[in-house]
Amino acid sequence: MSDERPNEREELAVYIISVAAELAGVHPQTLRIYERKGLLRPKRTSGNTRRYSERDIRHLQMIQDLTQEQGVNLAGVKLIIEMQAELDALRKKTAELERELRASRRFQRRSRDRPEVGEIVPLRSLFLPPWQGGVQR
After folding, report:
1. Among 45, 77, 76, 44, which residue's Cα sits nearest to residue 60?
2. What pLDDT, on a 0 to 100 scale, did the predictor assign at position 135?
3. CATH fold of 6-98, please?
4. For residue 125, what are the β-bridge partners?
C-alpha cells in the first residue's frame, strides 16, 4: 500500500501526450491547442516533455463534454474553468471563516461561563437600595 494520499496520486503527472489524448478521447494536437489557449497546463519533464495527471485527464473530459455535448466554445470553456476555480476558492474561504466563527463562539461561551483571573465580576449586593425597602441581611 502506498503512503501517498489520493490527492497526491491524482496530481502525479505520469501520462505522455499520446496516452493522455487517448484516455480523454481527443487527438494529441487538441491537447496542444488547449494548452496554447490556457485551458490546460501539463507538467513538464526536465527534457520539456509534457506529462499529464489523472486530474488533467478529468479536466480534458470536462472540456470535451462542454464543447461536444453542451456546445460551449473554447472561450466559454475558459470562462467556466476560471469561474469554477473562483467558486472553489470562495467555498474554501467560507469553510475557513465558518470554522473561525465556531471557534469564536465557543470561546465566547467559555468566557461568559468562567470569568478570567483579575476580571471585575459584579457581586449581588447584600444591601438593597432605599427604594426597595431598606437594608437586607
Report:
1. 77
2. 54
3. Multidrug-efflux Transporter Regulator; Chain: A; Domain 2 (1.10.1660)
4. none
